[in-house]
Amino acid sequence: MKKFYDREKEMAELLKMQRQSYEDYSRFVVLTGRRRVGKTSLVYKMMEQTKSIAPCLYFFVGRKTEAALVQNFSDEIRLRLGEFVPDSIKLFRELFQFLLEVAKRRKFTLFIDEFQEFDNVNNGIFSDIQELWDRYKKQTNMCLIVSGSIFRMMEKIFKDEDQPLFARDDSTIKLQPFNTDVIREILHDYKADYTKDDLLALWTFTGGIARYIEAFMDNGCTTVRKMINYICSDSDGFFIDEGKKILLQEFGKQYGVYFSIMGQIAQGDVTQREIEGSLGIDSLGGQLKMLDEKYALIHKKRPVGAKPGSQTVRYEINDNFFRFWFRYIYRYPALIELQNMPALAKIISDDYTAFSGLALERWFRQRMKESFKYQLIGNWWKNETKTTKNEGQHDEFEIDIVAEDLKGDVSAYEVKRNADRYRAKRLGEKVAEMQKQTFKGKNIRTGCLSMNDMEAGW
Fold it and tell me: Nearest 5°: phi and psi at 426?
């Protein structure tokens, strides 16, 4: 995508930090967010806008030896700053101190990408940066921006009290996926006559992740069919390899159990008991807690009105792309190994209506969240489950979206791809059942949200 979309708030924060660095003294900015969300593009755009004010350096921390990285960084300094860098400098500590000395007399921005990879190069580098930054910060005019995609590592480096760089940042920016209005804007720019199904597909497969949207748009994939065909393309394995490539870095050697859990959640086994039963593993509470609290890849869902400590819990994958990847790519490795991509494309196409129906619920919850008009957004289901031969089958009393606005007014919605399938009487029965437990005495507005309402305001 040639056009730069959104990011006004984040850009303003970066420019503010840079301005303070140049006018006052050095500032340290930490930029986080999941891989492919657009962190590097954002900083590049900022650097492009401000290069006439002062030079900008870009260091990418690849998995090389420290000496090889320092040589690459030295070349960048010579090119961008025109400074002489002695060949005797072989350690990053020496190079960073050299830059801080330069920053005593010159202002510039230093962007270090994939910062967490220093841990694989020489984990003593974090202590070196801390010591030198504390010593030089008030004497220099450097805007230091560091970015990282491995959530677990970036959290540890900057949020763990035992780590040397704890609390050294002046600003932390967590870059989020594009919101629903930006996704609409992008699709409109590439296909002005897009359909609601095209928009839902773009949301379902990407969840607003910039790089995935870019891949679709740059390859003319603006319809459901074209998106599925591109994902399953024999010549381009980008989407096929993506999930494993990202999560192996997060999970390390423990990836097998975590992948299995997420695979089950993606299929709809959403309670801990169901996941354990499907995998034949007892007590997965610790792994579920890690996926929720440490990796932020899944979250607990409780019915609206349930107490925070309630054991009535279901699990859902946070990220749309990972929901898709585990439901189809992870599940059918044999087809991928045989390069039988047409068969995989047919499986996805045949299941798309059901799968995108679940994504449609998430779309509406996200639209409500982005409106800032609500104090509660969730769903509701009856605590009990049916006693049938299918142990754990959920009770039919379930409401897709329950929302309470800032004035205290409550609405309950059924979400249907096709509004003709909505049954107002049945929703009324569910609401009456819900009111036995919560919102007693309140008048609850009911209705249906369908694909026709996708672009409605809130």
Answer: -65, -40
